[in-house]
Amino acid sequence: MELDQSVLTGGEVAAFKLRSLYRQYGYMPYKMSKFEEYELYALNKDFLASDSIITFNDADGKLMALKPDVTLSIVKNSEEIPGLLQKVYYDEQVYRTAGTLNAIREIRQAGVECIGEIDTYHSCEVLLLAARSLYSISKSYILDVSHMGFVAGLLECIDISESCKRELLDCIRGKNRHGIEVICGAAGLADDMLERLLTLVQAYGPMERVLDELRPVILNEAMSSSFTELEQVCSVLKNLGYDRNVMFDFSVASSMRYYNGLLFTGYIDGIPSGVLSGGRYDKLMHKMGKKSGAIGFAVYLDLLEGLLSQNNGYDVDILLLYSDDARVETLNRAAQDFVSRGLTVRVQKAVPKELRFRRLFRLSGNEVTELGSDR
Amino acid sequence: MDQTVNVALPKGRLGDNVYEMFEKAGFPSPSIKETSRKLLFENDLHGVRYFWVKPSDVPIYVERGAADIGVAGKDTLLELGPDVYELLDLKTGNCSIVAAAPRNFRDDKRKTLRVATKFVNIARSYYSSLGRDIDIIRLNGSIELAPLLGLSDVIVDIFETGTTLRENDLEVLSVIVPISARLIANKASFKFKNKKLEQIKDSLRAQVR
Does A172 have pLDDT greater than 80? Predict the structure, then answer.
Protein backbone atom coordinates (compact mmCIF):
# COMPACT_ATOMS: atom_id res chain seq x y z
CA MET A 1 0.00 0.00 0.00
CA GLU A 2 1.32 3.38 -0.94
CA LEU A 3 1.96 5.92 1.80
CA ASP A 4 -0.63 8.68 1.86
CA GLN A 5 1.50 11.78 2.55
CA SER A 6 -1.50 13.73 3.81
CA VAL A 7 -1.61 11.69 7.02
CA LEU A 8 1.78 13.08 8.05
CA THR A 9 2.11 16.23 10.11
CA GLY A 10 4.56 18.95 9.10
CA GLY A 11 7.05 17.76 11.70
CA GLU A 12 6.85 14.14 10.49
CA VAL A 13 7.36 15.03 6.84
CA ALA A 14 10.36 17.14 7.81
CA ALA A 15 11.77 14.37 10.02
CA PHE A 16 11.70 11.84 7.15
CA LYS A 17 13.30 14.26 4.73
CA LEU A 18 16.00 15.23 7.22
CA ARG A 19 16.86 11.65 8.11
CA SER A 20 17.36 10.73 4.49
CA LEU A 21 19.39 13.89 3.92
CA TYR A 22 21.75 13.04 6.80
CA ARG A 23 22.07 9.47 5.59
CA GLN A 24 23.14 10.73 2.17
CA TYR A 25 26.18 12.27 3.81
CA GLY A 26 27.02 9.10 5.70
CA TYR A 27 25.75 10.14 9.13
CA MET A 28 24.62 7.21 11.25
CA PRO A 29 21.45 7.08 13.32
CA TYR A 30 21.94 7.50 17.05
CA LYS A 31 19.19 6.15 19.26
CA MET A 32 19.30 6.89 22.92
CA SER A 33 17.37 6.27 26.07
CA LYS A 34 14.79 8.77 27.25
CA PHE A 35 16.65 9.47 30.47
CA GLU A 36 20.11 10.10 31.73
CA GLU A 37 21.73 10.58 35.13
CA TYR A 38 20.84 14.00 36.49
CA GLU A 39 24.46 14.78 37.30
CA LEU A 40 25.32 15.24 33.61
CA TYR A 41 22.90 18.16 33.37
CA ALA A 42 23.66 19.59 36.79
CA LEU A 43 27.32 19.94 35.77
CA ASN A 44 26.51 21.62 32.48
CA LYS A 45 23.45 23.61 33.37
CA ASP A 46 24.42 26.71 31.39
CA PHE A 47 24.60 24.67 28.21
CA LEU A 48 20.90 23.88 28.41
CA ALA A 49 18.23 26.07 26.90
CA SER A 50 16.08 25.89 30.01
CA ASP A 51 16.76 25.47 33.70
CA SER A 52 14.05 23.11 34.81
CA ILE A 53 14.57 19.44 34.33
CA ILE A 54 12.17 16.62 35.20
CA THR A 55 13.91 14.35 37.66
CA PHE A 56 13.00 11.06 39.31
CA ASN A 57 14.72 8.28 41.26
CA ASP A 58 15.48 4.96 39.67
CA ALA A 59 15.25 1.63 41.49
CA ASP A 60 18.64 2.17 43.19
CA GLY A 61 17.70 5.62 44.36
CA LYS A 62 19.91 7.28 41.76
CA LEU A 63 18.64 10.66 40.60
CA MET A 64 17.71 10.50 36.94
CA ALA A 65 16.43 13.10 34.50
CA LEU A 66 14.21 13.04 31.44
CA LYS A 67 16.51 14.24 28.67
CA PRO A 68 16.31 18.03 28.21
CA ASP A 69 19.02 17.89 25.55
CA VAL A 70 20.57 15.43 23.13
CA THR A 71 24.04 16.87 22.49
CA LEU A 72 25.33 16.31 26.03
CA SER A 73 24.50 12.61 25.88
CA ILE A 74 26.17 12.18 22.52
CA VAL A 75 29.29 14.03 23.65
CA LYS A 76 29.46 12.02 26.86
CA ASN A 77 29.35 8.74 24.98
CA SER A 78 31.60 9.77 22.12
CA GLU A 79 34.78 7.81 21.55
CA GLU A 80 37.93 9.57 20.53
CA ILE A 81 39.90 7.81 17.85
CA PRO A 82 42.77 9.93 16.49
CA GLY A 83 42.25 10.92 12.89
CA LEU A 84 38.66 9.68 12.78
CA LEU A 85 35.37 11.51 13.00
CA GLN A 86 32.10 10.40 14.48
CA LYS A 87 29.14 11.46 12.42
CA VAL A 88 25.72 10.82 13.86
CA TYR A 89 22.17 12.04 13.42
CA TYR A 90 19.21 11.76 15.76
CA ASP A 91 15.47 12.27 15.87
CA GLU A 92 14.45 12.41 19.51
CA GLN A 93 12.04 13.87 22.03
CA VAL A 94 13.45 16.18 24.67
CA TYR A 95 11.71 17.61 27.71
CA ARG A 96 12.18 21.23 28.66
CA THR A 97 10.26 24.30 29.69
CA ALA A 98 9.03 26.57 26.96
CA GLY A 99 6.56 29.37 26.41
CA THR A 100 5.37 32.17 28.62
CA LEU A 101 4.15 29.95 31.43
CA ASN A 102 7.38 27.96 31.55
CA ALA A 103 5.42 24.75 31.41
CA ILE A 104 7.38 21.59 30.63
CA ARG A 105 6.84 20.38 27.10
CA GLU A 106 7.83 17.48 24.95
CA ILE A 107 9.80 18.80 22.00
CA ARG A 108 10.86 16.82 18.98
CA GLN A 109 14.35 17.54 17.68
CA ALA A 110 16.31 16.17 14.77
CA GLY A 111 19.90 17.02 14.12
CA VAL A 112 23.46 16.02 13.47
CA GLU A 113 26.68 16.01 15.48
CA CYS A 114 30.13 15.72 13.97
CA ILE A 115 32.78 14.92 16.58
CA GLY A 116 36.55 14.65 16.17
CA GLU A 117 39.21 16.73 14.47
CA ILE A 118 37.01 19.25 12.74
CA ASP A 119 38.64 20.78 9.68
CA THR A 120 37.33 23.36 7.24
CA TYR A 121 35.72 20.68 5.09
CA HIS A 122 33.67 19.43 8.01
CA SER A 123 32.65 22.90 9.22
CA CYS A 124 31.38 23.54 5.72
CA GLU A 125 29.72 20.13 5.45
CA VAL A 126 27.71 20.77 8.61
CA LEU A 127 26.76 24.27 7.43
CA LEU A 128 25.75 22.82 4.10
CA LEU A 129 23.61 20.21 5.86
CA ALA A 130 22.01 22.98 7.92
CA ALA A 131 21.19 24.95 4.77
CA ARG A 132 19.88 21.86 3.00
CA SER A 133 17.80 20.91 6.06
CA LEU A 134 16.08 24.29 5.88
CA TYR A 135 15.67 24.04 2.10
CA SER A 136 13.98 20.67 2.50
CA ILE A 137 11.41 22.32 4.74
CA SER A 138 10.85 25.47 2.68
CA LYS A 139 12.52 27.16 -0.25
CA SER A 140 12.13 30.47 1.51
CA TYR A 141 14.68 30.16 4.28
CA ILE A 142 17.63 32.02 5.75
CA LEU A 143 20.64 30.65 7.58
CA ASP A 144 22.39 33.24 9.74
CA VAL A 145 26.01 32.48 10.47
CA SER A 146 28.19 34.09 13.11
CA HIS A 147 31.57 33.34 14.64
CA MET A 148 32.01 33.33 18.41
CA GLY A 149 35.79 33.58 18.02
CA PHE A 150 35.38 36.91 16.28
CA VAL A 151 32.97 38.30 18.90
CA ALA A 152 35.00 36.96 21.83
CA GLY A 153 38.20 38.30 20.24
CA LEU A 154 36.74 41.79 20.14
CA LEU A 155 35.34 41.65 23.68
CA GLU A 156 38.77 40.48 24.88
CA CYS A 157 40.31 43.78 23.77
CA ILE A 158 37.82 45.82 25.72
CA ASP A 159 38.87 46.75 29.20
CA ILE A 160 35.63 46.47 31.18
CA SER A 161 34.23 44.16 33.85
CA GLU A 162 32.91 40.68 33.04
CA SER A 163 29.37 41.71 33.89
CA CYS A 164 29.59 44.64 31.46
CA LYS A 165 30.88 42.24 28.81
CA ARG A 166 27.87 40.04 29.37
CA GLU A 167 25.65 43.09 28.93
CA LEU A 168 27.49 43.95 25.72
CA LEU A 169 26.93 40.43 24.46
CA ASP A 170 23.22 40.81 25.26
CA CYS A 171 23.15 44.02 23.24
CA ILE A 172 24.91 42.32 20.32
CA ARG A 173 22.32 39.56 20.51
CA GLY A 174 19.48 42.11 20.47
CA LYS A 175 21.01 44.30 17.70
CA ASN A 176 20.80 47.00 20.32
CA ARG A 177 23.02 49.91 19.17
CA HIS A 178 21.82 52.39 21.76
CA GLY A 179 22.48 49.89 24.55
CA ILE A 180 26.10 49.54 23.40
CA GLU A 181 26.47 53.32 23.26
CA VAL A 182 25.22 53.62 26.83
CA ILE A 183 27.50 50.90 28.21
CA CYS A 184 30.58 52.23 26.38
CA GLY A 185 29.77 55.78 27.44
CA ALA A 186 29.51 54.78 31.09
CA ALA A 187 32.78 52.81 30.90
CA GLY A 188 34.58 55.67 29.14
CA LEU A 189 35.58 53.49 26.22
CA ALA A 190 37.61 54.94 23.34
CA ASP A 191 35.64 55.99 20.26
CA ASP A 192 37.35 53.54 17.93
CA MET A 193 36.28 50.62 20.15
CA LEU A 194 32.71 51.87 20.17
CA GLU A 195 32.89 52.20 16.40
CA ARG A 196 34.05 48.58 16.12
CA LEU A 197 31.25 47.31 18.34
CA LEU A 198 28.66 49.29 16.39
CA THR A 199 29.97 47.92 13.08
CA LEU A 200 29.69 44.41 14.47
CA VAL A 201 26.13 44.88 15.71
CA GLN A 202 25.02 46.56 12.46
CA ALA A 203 26.61 43.99 10.17
CA TYR A 204 23.89 41.91 8.60
CA GLY A 205 23.42 40.62 5.11
CA PRO A 206 25.07 38.76 2.24
CA MET A 207 28.36 37.13 3.26
CA GLU A 208 30.72 39.08 1.01
CA ARG A 209 29.29 42.46 1.94
CA VAL A 210 29.55 41.73 5.67
CA LEU A 211 33.15 40.52 5.28
CA ASP A 212 34.03 43.86 3.66
CA GLU A 213 32.39 45.73 6.53
CA LEU A 214 34.18 43.66 9.15
CA ARG A 215 37.71 43.80 7.77
CA PRO A 216 38.53 47.12 9.50
CA VAL A 217 37.23 45.78 12.83
CA ILE A 218 39.97 43.13 13.19
CA LEU A 219 42.30 43.80 16.11
CA ASN A 220 44.08 40.60 17.05
CA GLU A 221 45.05 37.09 16.04
CA ALA A 222 41.85 35.50 17.34
CA MET A 223 39.72 37.83 15.24
CA SER A 224 41.82 37.46 12.13
CA SER A 225 41.81 33.65 12.23
CA SER A 226 38.03 33.68 12.77
CA PHE A 227 37.76 36.07 9.85
CA THR A 228 39.76 33.69 7.65
CA GLU A 229 37.40 30.87 8.59
CA LEU A 230 34.41 33.02 7.64
CA GLU A 231 36.06 33.83 4.31
CA GLN A 232 36.49 30.10 3.64
CA VAL A 233 32.87 29.42 4.55
CA CYS A 234 31.79 32.24 2.27
CA SER A 235 33.73 30.96 -0.71
CA VAL A 236 32.62 27.32 -0.27
CA LEU A 237 28.94 28.13 0.20
CA LYS A 238 29.01 30.64 -2.62
CA ASN A 239 30.45 28.06 -4.99
CA LEU A 240 27.68 25.68 -4.02
CA GLY A 241 25.10 28.36 -4.77
CA TYR A 242 23.95 29.07 -1.23
CA ASP A 243 24.99 32.72 -1.09
CA ARG A 244 21.44 34.02 -1.48
CA ASN A 245 20.17 32.23 1.61
CA VAL A 246 23.16 32.26 3.92
CA MET A 247 23.80 35.56 5.72
CA PHE A 248 26.41 36.66 8.20
CA ASP A 249 24.85 38.01 11.36
CA PHE A 250 26.67 38.51 14.64
CA SER A 251 23.51 38.76 16.69
CA VAL A 252 23.66 34.97 16.67
CA ALA A 253 25.61 34.77 19.90
CA SER A 254 25.60 32.24 22.66
CA SER A 255 27.34 31.38 25.88
CA MET A 256 31.10 31.91 25.43
CA ARG A 257 31.72 29.10 27.88
CA TYR A 258 30.61 26.38 25.49
CA TYR A 259 30.82 27.72 21.97
CA ASN A 260 33.99 28.89 20.31
CA GLY A 261 33.71 28.94 16.54
CA LEU A 262 30.96 29.07 13.95
CA LEU A 263 27.49 29.57 15.32
CA PHE A 264 24.28 29.60 13.30
CA THR A 265 20.51 29.92 13.41
CA GLY A 266 18.04 29.04 10.67
CA TYR A 267 14.72 30.69 9.88
CA ILE A 268 11.80 29.63 7.72
CA ASP A 269 9.48 32.22 6.21
CA GLY A 270 6.21 32.10 8.12
CA ILE A 271 7.61 30.80 11.40
CA PRO A 272 8.28 33.59 13.90
CA SER A 273 11.29 32.09 15.65
CA GLY A 274 14.43 30.22 14.66
CA VAL A 275 13.79 26.57 13.70
CA LEU A 276 17.41 25.45 13.58
CA SER A 277 20.35 26.25 15.76
CA GLY A 278 23.84 24.95 16.09
CA GLY A 279 27.52 25.66 16.23
CA ARG A 280 31.02 24.65 17.08
CA TYR A 281 31.33 23.56 20.71
CA ASP A 282 34.94 22.52 21.37
CA LYS A 283 34.77 24.18 24.77
CA LEU A 284 31.98 21.87 25.90
CA MET A 285 34.08 18.91 24.71
CA HIS A 286 37.07 20.10 26.74
CA LYS A 287 34.90 20.71 29.77
CA MET A 288 33.77 17.10 29.54
CA GLY A 289 37.34 15.85 29.34
CA LYS A 290 37.53 15.30 25.58
CA LYS A 291 40.39 16.54 23.48
CA SER A 292 38.77 16.85 20.08
CA GLY A 293 36.35 19.36 18.65
CA ALA A 294 32.72 19.10 17.65
CA ILE A 295 30.11 20.85 15.55
CA GLY A 296 26.42 20.13 15.14
CA PHE A 297 22.91 21.48 15.02
CA ALA A 298 19.32 20.68 15.89
CA VAL A 299 16.06 21.33 14.03
CA TYR A 300 13.02 22.01 16.22
CA LEU A 301 10.44 19.85 14.54
CA ASP A 302 7.57 20.85 16.80
CA LEU A 303 7.69 24.36 15.32
CA LEU A 304 6.95 22.91 11.91
CA GLU A 305 3.58 21.47 12.89
CA GLY A 306 1.01 22.18 10.28
CA LEU A 307 3.48 23.88 7.98
CA LEU A 308 3.75 21.09 5.44
CA SER A 309 0.65 19.02 5.95
CA GLN A 310 -1.71 19.46 3.08
CA ASN A 311 -5.31 19.74 4.02
CA ASN A 312 -7.88 19.90 1.27
CA GLY A 313 -10.49 21.12 3.73
CA TYR A 314 -12.28 17.76 4.07
CA ASP A 315 -11.92 15.05 6.69
CA VAL A 316 -13.16 12.37 4.28
CA ASP A 317 -14.18 12.13 0.65
CA ILE A 318 -17.26 10.04 1.24
CA LEU A 319 -19.70 9.76 4.10
CA LEU A 320 -21.73 6.56 3.67
CA LEU A 321 -24.91 6.29 5.72
CA TYR A 322 -26.76 3.05 6.38
CA SER A 323 -29.72 1.96 8.46
CA ASP A 324 -30.33 -0.96 10.82
CA ASP A 325 -31.76 -3.20 8.14
CA ALA A 326 -28.71 -2.95 5.86
CA ARG A 327 -26.91 -6.20 5.10
CA VAL A 328 -23.31 -6.33 6.30
CA GLU A 329 -22.05 -7.84 3.02
CA THR A 330 -23.67 -5.12 0.92
CA LEU A 331 -22.41 -2.39 3.20
CA ASN A 332 -18.93 -3.85 3.11
CA ARG A 333 -18.93 -4.07 -0.66
CA ALA A 334 -20.12 -0.47 -0.97
CA ALA A 335 -17.36 0.80 1.34
CA GLN A 336 -14.70 -1.31 -0.41
CA ASP A 337 -15.84 0.06 -3.73
CA PHE A 338 -15.01 3.62 -2.62
CA VAL A 339 -11.70 2.65 -0.99
CA SER A 340 -10.54 0.77 -4.07
CA ARG A 341 -11.07 3.94 -6.07
CA GLY A 342 -8.58 5.68 -3.79
CA LEU A 343 -11.22 7.61 -1.86
CA THR A 344 -11.45 7.96 1.90
CA VAL A 345 -14.75 6.74 3.26
CA ARG A 346 -16.46 6.90 6.61
CA VAL A 347 -19.38 4.60 7.40
CA GLN A 348 -21.93 5.93 9.90
CA LYS A 349 -25.60 5.61 10.73
CA ALA A 350 -26.07 9.35 11.09
CA VAL A 351 -24.17 12.42 10.00
CA PRO A 352 -21.53 13.20 12.66
CA LYS A 353 -21.63 16.77 13.87
CA GLU A 354 -18.19 18.07 13.02
CA LEU A 355 -17.19 15.85 10.14
CA ARG A 356 -16.41 17.64 6.88
CA PHE A 357 -17.12 15.39 3.88
CA ARG A 358 -17.00 15.92 0.15
CA ARG A 359 -19.96 13.74 -0.86
CA LEU A 360 -22.79 12.09 1.06
CA PHE A 361 -24.21 8.67 0.15
CA ARG A 362 -26.87 6.39 1.60
CA LEU A 363 -27.19 2.65 1.30
CA SER A 364 -30.78 1.50 1.08
CA GLY A 365 -31.44 -2.11 0.14
CA ASN A 366 -28.79 -2.89 -2.45
CA GLU A 367 -28.67 0.65 -3.78
CA VAL A 368 -26.12 3.33 -2.98
CA THR A 369 -27.55 6.75 -3.77
CA GLU A 370 -25.95 10.16 -3.50
CA LEU A 371 -27.76 12.53 -1.17
CA GLY A 372 -25.62 15.62 -1.54
CA SER A 373 -22.18 17.08 -1.45
CA ASP A 374 -19.94 19.43 0.45
CA ARG A 375 -19.90 20.18 4.12
CA MET B 1 5.30 36.68 0.45
CA ASP B 2 3.19 39.48 1.85
CA GLN B 3 5.62 42.33 2.43
CA THR B 4 3.17 44.50 4.37
CA VAL B 5 4.75 45.35 7.70
CA ASN B 6 2.52 44.84 10.74
CA VAL B 7 3.16 47.40 13.45
CA ALA B 8 1.92 46.96 17.03
CA LEU B 9 1.52 50.32 18.78
CA PRO B 10 0.86 50.74 22.50
CA LYS B 11 -2.57 52.19 23.30
CA GLY B 12 -2.48 55.54 25.03
CA ARG B 13 -0.50 58.77 24.97
CA LEU B 14 2.83 57.09 24.23
CA GLY B 15 1.30 55.30 21.24
CA ASP B 16 -0.12 58.60 19.90
CA ASN B 17 3.32 60.22 20.11
CA VAL B 18 4.97 57.26 18.48
CA TYR B 19 2.43 57.15 15.66
CA GLU B 20 3.28 60.81 14.95
CA MET B 21 6.90 59.71 14.56
CA PHE B 22 5.92 56.99 12.09
CA GLU B 23 3.79 59.50 10.20
CA LYS B 24 6.60 62.05 9.98
CA ALA B 25 9.00 59.29 8.98
CA GLY B 26 6.87 58.77 5.88
CA PHE B 27 4.54 55.93 6.91
CA PRO B 28 1.17 57.58 7.52
CA SER B 29 -2.17 55.83 7.79
CA PRO B 30 -4.66 58.71 8.12
CA SER B 31 -7.65 56.52 9.02
CA ILE B 32 -6.03 55.84 12.38
CA LYS B 33 -7.06 59.28 13.60
CA GLU B 34 -10.75 58.81 12.88
CA THR B 35 -12.77 57.66 15.84
CA SER B 36 -14.15 54.33 14.77
CA ARG B 37 -14.37 50.78 15.92
CA LYS B 38 -11.81 49.64 13.42
CA LEU B 39 -8.89 47.67 14.82
CA LEU B 40 -6.53 47.54 11.86
CA PHE B 41 -5.30 50.58 9.98
CA GLU B 42 -3.73 49.83 6.66
CA ASN B 43 -1.87 51.90 4.15
CA ASP B 44 -1.26 49.91 0.96
CA LEU B 45 0.77 52.68 -0.59
CA HIS B 46 3.41 52.56 2.12
CA GLY B 47 3.01 48.87 2.90
CA VAL B 48 2.25 49.27 6.61
CA ARG B 49 -0.59 48.07 8.82
CA TYR B 50 -0.98 49.49 12.33
CA PHE B 51 -2.92 48.19 15.28
CA TRP B 52 -3.29 49.25 18.89
CA VAL B 53 -2.69 46.80 21.71
CA LYS B 54 -2.27 47.02 25.46
CA PRO B 55 1.28 48.39 26.03
CA SER B 56 2.46 45.37 27.96
CA ASP B 57 1.22 43.06 25.17
CA VAL B 58 3.34 44.64 22.42
CA PRO B 59 6.41 42.42 23.05
CA ILE B 60 4.21 39.32 22.88
CA TYR B 61 2.71 40.28 19.50
CA VAL B 62 6.19 40.94 18.17
CA GLU B 63 7.92 37.88 19.63
CA ARG B 64 5.23 35.60 18.20
CA GLY B 65 5.30 37.29 14.82
CA ALA B 66 1.72 38.66 14.80
CA ALA B 67 3.45 42.03 14.47
CA ASP B 68 6.73 42.43 12.59
CA ILE B 69 7.71 45.45 14.60
CA GLY B 70 6.29 47.31 17.56
CA VAL B 71 6.96 49.97 20.11
CA ALA B 72 7.32 49.03 23.76
CA GLY B 73 8.61 50.72 26.88
CA LYS B 74 11.97 49.47 28.13
CA ASP B 75 10.13 48.56 31.37
CA THR B 76 7.96 45.95 29.65
CA LEU B 77 10.99 44.63 27.77
CA LEU B 78 12.96 44.19 30.97
CA GLU B 79 10.00 42.66 32.71
CA LEU B 80 9.05 40.17 29.97
CA GLY B 81 12.49 39.53 28.43
CA PRO B 82 11.11 38.70 24.97
CA ASP B 83 13.36 37.18 22.30
CA VAL B 84 13.27 40.14 19.89
CA TYR B 85 15.65 42.67 18.36
CA GLU B 86 15.72 46.06 20.05
CA LEU B 87 16.47 48.25 17.05
CA LEU B 88 16.09 51.81 18.22
CA ASP B 89 15.70 53.99 21.28
CA LEU B 90 12.89 56.37 20.29
CA LYS B 91 13.74 58.63 23.25
CA THR B 92 10.11 59.36 23.93
CA GLY B 93 7.99 58.35 26.92
CA ASN B 94 11.02 59.03 29.08
CA CYS B 95 10.73 58.10 32.73
CA SER B 96 12.48 55.74 35.12
CA ILE B 97 11.83 52.82 37.39
CA VAL B 98 12.66 53.74 40.95
CA ALA B 99 12.56 52.32 44.43
CA ALA B 100 10.57 54.62 46.70
CA ALA B 101 9.47 54.66 50.34
CA PRO B 102 7.71 56.89 52.88
CA ARG B 103 9.73 60.01 53.69
CA ASN B 104 10.95 58.81 57.07
CA PHE B 105 11.83 55.27 55.93
CA ARG B 106 14.97 53.58 57.26
CA ASP B 107 15.93 50.16 55.87
CA ASP B 108 16.18 47.73 58.79
CA LYS B 109 18.68 45.20 57.39
CA ARG B 110 17.76 42.58 59.99
CA LYS B 111 14.39 42.09 58.34
CA THR B 112 13.27 40.86 54.96
CA LEU B 113 12.34 43.90 52.88
CA ARG B 114 8.76 43.86 51.64
CA VAL B 115 8.56 45.27 48.11
CA ALA B 116 5.26 46.09 46.40
CA THR B 117 5.47 46.32 42.62
CA LYS B 118 4.07 45.59 39.20
CA PHE B 119 7.61 44.94 37.96
CA VAL B 120 8.38 41.68 39.69
CA ASN B 121 11.39 40.69 37.60
CA ILE B 122 12.99 44.12 37.60
CA ALA B 123 12.59 44.39 41.39
CA ARG B 124 13.93 40.89 41.92
CA SER B 125 17.05 41.39 39.83
CA TYR B 126 17.73 44.84 41.32
CA TYR B 127 17.60 43.64 44.93
CA SER B 128 19.47 40.45 44.17
CA SER B 129 22.30 42.57 42.71
CA LEU B 130 22.38 44.31 46.11
CA GLY B 131 22.24 40.98 47.92
CA ARG B 132 19.13 42.13 49.80
CA ASP B 133 16.60 39.54 50.90
CA ILE B 134 13.14 40.63 49.78
CA ASP B 135 9.52 39.55 49.78
CA ILE B 136 7.80 40.62 46.58
CA ILE B 137 4.16 41.65 46.68
CA ARG B 138 2.76 41.77 43.17
CA LEU B 139 0.14 44.48 42.68
CA ASN B 140 -1.53 45.65 39.50
CA GLY B 141 -2.19 49.29 40.36
CA SER B 142 -2.17 51.99 43.08
CA ILE B 143 1.24 50.74 44.15
CA GLU B 144 1.81 53.94 46.20
CA LEU B 145 -0.92 52.83 48.57
CA ALA B 146 0.98 49.76 49.76
CA PRO B 147 3.52 51.41 52.13
CA LEU B 148 0.88 53.82 53.45
CA LEU B 149 -1.22 50.90 54.69
CA GLY B 150 1.75 48.89 55.89
CA LEU B 151 1.35 46.31 53.14
CA SER B 152 4.97 46.84 52.08
CA ASP B 153 8.10 48.71 53.20
CA VAL B 154 9.03 50.07 49.80
CA ILE B 155 7.67 50.16 46.26
CA VAL B 156 9.31 49.72 42.88
CA ASP B 157 7.41 51.71 40.30
CA ILE B 158 7.48 54.03 37.29
CA PHE B 159 8.55 57.58 38.13
CA GLU B 160 7.53 60.21 35.64
CA THR B 161 6.99 63.63 37.19
CA GLY B 162 6.99 62.65 40.83
CA THR B 163 3.57 64.16 41.53
CA THR B 164 1.98 60.94 42.72
CA LEU B 165 4.89 60.17 45.01
CA ARG B 166 4.93 63.68 46.47
CA GLU B 167 1.20 63.72 47.08
CA ASN B 168 1.49 60.48 49.00
CA ASP B 169 4.50 61.60 50.99
CA LEU B 170 6.84 59.12 49.33
CA GLU B 171 10.36 59.79 48.15
CA VAL B 172 12.76 58.16 45.70
CA LEU B 173 15.41 55.93 47.33
CA SER B 174 17.23 55.09 44.11
CA VAL B 175 16.78 55.11 40.37
CA ILE B 176 16.88 51.50 39.17
CA VAL B 177 16.80 52.02 35.43
CA PRO B 178 15.94 54.81 32.99
CA ILE B 179 13.05 53.99 30.65
CA SER B 180 12.06 55.10 27.16
CA ALA B 181 10.16 53.71 24.21
CA ARG B 182 12.01 51.23 22.00
CA LEU B 183 11.42 49.99 18.47
CA ILE B 184 11.47 46.20 18.58
CA ALA B 185 11.39 43.66 15.75
CA ASN B 186 10.54 40.01 15.36
CA LYS B 187 13.71 38.06 14.60
CA ALA B 188 12.35 36.15 11.61
CA SER B 189 10.61 39.22 10.15
CA PHE B 190 13.91 41.07 10.37
CA LYS B 191 15.35 38.52 7.95
CA PHE B 192 12.48 38.13 5.54
CA LYS B 193 11.39 41.77 5.42
CA ASN B 194 14.86 43.16 5.98
CA LYS B 195 14.88 45.98 3.44
CA LYS B 196 11.57 47.40 4.52
CA LEU B 197 12.34 47.17 8.24
CA GLU B 198 15.75 48.80 7.80
CA GLN B 199 14.05 51.55 5.85
CA ILE B 200 11.49 52.14 8.61
CA LYS B 201 14.20 52.06 11.26
CA ASP B 202 16.41 54.56 9.44
CA SER B 203 13.53 56.96 8.76
CA LEU B 204 12.45 56.75 12.40
CA ARG B 205 16.01 57.36 13.58
CA ALA B 206 15.88 60.71 11.78
CA GLN B 207 12.82 61.60 13.91
CA VAL B 208 14.49 60.83 17.23
CA ARG B 209 15.34 63.95 19.15
Answer: yes
Q: Nearest Cα to B122, choosing from B157, B84, B85?
A: B157
Q: How far, rounded to the nearest angstrom, does the alpha carbon of residue B190 sit from its chain's CA centroid?
A: 21
Question: Is A322 part of the contact surface with chain B (CB cutoff 8 Å)?
Answer: no
- Integer CA distances (angstroms), B150 to B114, B143, B153, B156, in order: 10, 12, 7, 15
Which amino acid is residue A4, in one-letter code?
Answer: D
List the single residue in A with minimal CA-CA distance to B91. A178
Q: What is the DSSP letter of A261?
A: S
Distance CA(B204)–CA(B185), nearest Å, equals 14
Q: Is A140 on the interface with B (CB under 8 A)?
A: yes
Nearest-neighbour CA in chain A from B194: distance (Å):
9
Cβ <8 Å between B60 and A100: yes
| DSSP structural state of residue B4 | P
Residue B191 has its nearest CB partner, among A176, A179, A267, at A267
In whole angstroms, give the CA distance from residue A296 to residue A284.
Answer: 12
**Pairing state between β B154-159 and A276-280:** unpaired
For residue A251, give the nearest of B63, B85, B188 by CB distance: B85
Query: What gap in Å lies between CA A130 and CA A308, rounded to an integer?
Result: 19
Of the ranges A43-47, A116-120, A342-346, B34-38, which one carries the lowest mean pLDDT score?
Answer: B34-38
Indicate the residue type of A23: R
For chains A and B, CB pairs below 8 A equal 52
Cα distance between residue B97 and residue B113, in whole Å: 18
User: What ipTM does this complex have?
Assistant: 0.87
- Classify strands A316-321 and A367-373 as parallel, antiparallel or unpaired: unpaired
pLDDT band for A206, please (50, 70, 90 cuts).
very high
Query: What is the predicted pLDDT for the residue at A312?
Result: 65
Contact assessment for residue B87 and residue B105, using Cβ atoms and an 8 Å cutoff:
no
pLDDT (tens digit per residue) in B6-49: 999 999 999 999 999 999 999 988 888 777 777 888 888 889 99
Q: Where are the alpha helices (DSSP H) in chain B?
A: 13-24, 58-63, 74-80, 120-130, 145-148, 163-167, 187-192, 194-205
CA angle B58, B61, B65 (to 5 degrees): 140
Query: In this complex, do A272 and B85 lie within 8 Å of one another by their Cβ atoms?
Result: no
**pLDDT tens figures, A118-168:** 999 999 999 999 999 999 999 999 999 999 999 999 999 998 898 899 999
